[in-house]
């Protein structure tokens, strides 16, 4: 089973920005209500530029049990983020979790 369901560190780590074309109101899938506008071309997951960052779509408790409330509709940076990557190690370290084996 993926370590992600008991982690969530990368959803509480840095800004999650993506093309506005991925928003549901523009023909994409990401619910616009969970985002903020950065500029005309770029949207951001709400909460990821707060401190401490935490995506508004994340449910549960970091490091214990978490889920993405819009998993099927999450934006491309979330789809492309790889479990076991360098970014994954860094995000996990920030919340005090050990690195995963390289993917
Ligand atoms: S930091 Fe890594 S293990 Fe944790 S949720 Fe993100 S991809 Fe999964
Ligand atoms: S949209 Fe889902 S996968 Fe992406 S940062 Fe938010 S909670 Fe994590």
Characterise this structure.
- The protein is an alpha+beta fold and 103 residues long.
- It has one domain (3-92).
- The chain has two helices and five strands; from the N terminus they run E-E-E-E-E-H-H.
- The strands form two sheets. Strands 1-3-2 form a three-stranded antiparallel sheet, with no helix packed on it.
- Strand 2 (35-39) and strand 3 (42-45) form a beta hairpin.
- The mean pLDDT is 95.
- It binds iron/sulfur cluster (2 copies).
Show the helix and strand layout.
Layout: E1 17-19, E2 35-39, E3 42-45, E4 58-61, E5 65-68, H1 76-80, H2 86-94
Antiparallel strand pairs: 1-3, 2-3, 4-5
Bound molecules: iron/sulfur cluster (2 copies).
Residues 3-4, 7-10, 81, 83, 88, 91-92, 100 line the site of one iron/sulfur cluster (SF4).
Q: How would you sum up this structure in a few lines?
A:
It is built from 2 helices and 5 strands, in the order βββββαα. The chain is α+β, with helices and mostly antiparallel strands. It is elongated.
Structural class: alpha+beta
Quote the distance from N terminus to C terminus: 14 Å
Mean pLDDT: 95
Number of domains: 1
**Shape type:** elongated
From N to C, what is the helix and strand string? EEEEEHH
Largest sheet: 3 strands, antiparallel
- In percent, how much strand structure appears in the residues? 15-25%
Helix proportion of residues, in percent? 10-25%
Question: Given the structure, what is the number of helices?
Answer: 2
Number of strands: 5
Low-confidence stretches: none
**Which oligomerization state do the chains in this entry correspond to?**
single chain
Distinct bound molecules: iron/sulfur cluster
Strand order of the largest sheet: 1-3-2
Radius of gyration: 13 Å
